[in-house]
Amino acid sequence: MTDHRTPTAIAAPAPAPAAVTLKPVPLHQVLPWLAFAALLAFVAMYFVGAEQGATSLLNGTAVHEWTHDGRHLLGFPCH
Amino acid sequence: MTTARDLLVRGLLAGLLAGVAAFFVAYVVGEPSVSAAIALEDSAGGHSHGTDTGSAAAEDHDHGHAAGGHDHGTAGETEVPRSLQSTAGLATATIVAGVTLGGLIGVVSALGMGRFGRLGARGVPLLVAGLGFVAVYLVPFLTYPPNPPAVGSADTIGYRTELYFLLVAISVIAGVTAVLVGRRAAARWGAWYAAIVCGAAYVVVVGLASSLVPTYDEVPEGFPASVLYDFRLSSVLVQLTLWGVIGLVTAELAHRLAVRGRRSERTTALVDA
Questions:
Q1: Interval B151-176 mean pLDDT
Q2: Looking at the whole model, is its pTM more than 0.80?
Q3: In chain A, domain spans
């Protein structure tokens, strides 16, 4: 934090320091977006990373095979 | 003023770019080791991952996991041929992962703006993406490194998947807790000491979790160490590309947004005066 007690700071108010002007977005405004984005990312990661592998919501192996190489290379357990 | 929506849109865009970039890295760097592993798997003849599932499973090259067996399509018997798995399928996986991660990183960055001391509009998305890479991918990677085809037993895929996601959950929860506690501690001790203490606490927690979960040593005998190394290294590069591009692009777009916001504020102030 800037030290406002120094005499120079009183004498010459700095012309809007570049990085300090970020205003926090109110929590109640961000949280619904956060909940939705987190849920969506979780579901997407499940289908890319685990569906028709260890657990299976859909029948068959098409999802597993389609995402097969991505699943391996993104680091999920595959076989 | 910056809103969550502004940063969500920028994060999604960054994620799309990151997904495409990660696809190219995966295709160029990763696919050779995947192909090499599948070729080894096929040339080994009907193997059954060293389990006692018998010759029936071995004959049709069956991995026999919960969803039913699959093979890697060199014999042309799969629903999705290898040529599609390594191109369109791979791109689907990296782009879906990129867009959703990008959106999430954008929104978390919106939450972080102005809440990390003097960290600016470029610094916050970089911090979020960097910590995300470590907590979501790197820490679970250190305990359960990813395996190429032909490595890993069909009998344990269920446990390994559950344990992998459990480690991701522990790491993310510990990481978020460390950041939240760290912000409070920073007000008292300063950012440097708060980061060191909370970072160390995070390392202890994930280190403990990692040492408590069972280990699986399932690399088949004679599997070339170089193929395994190449595959794991390319997996790190793919994920690094994903999080890195999301972090850099979101940072740049968020910075431009903040500069534009500041300029318009100044203009309004002049008009008012």
A1: 92
A2: yes
A3: 25-79
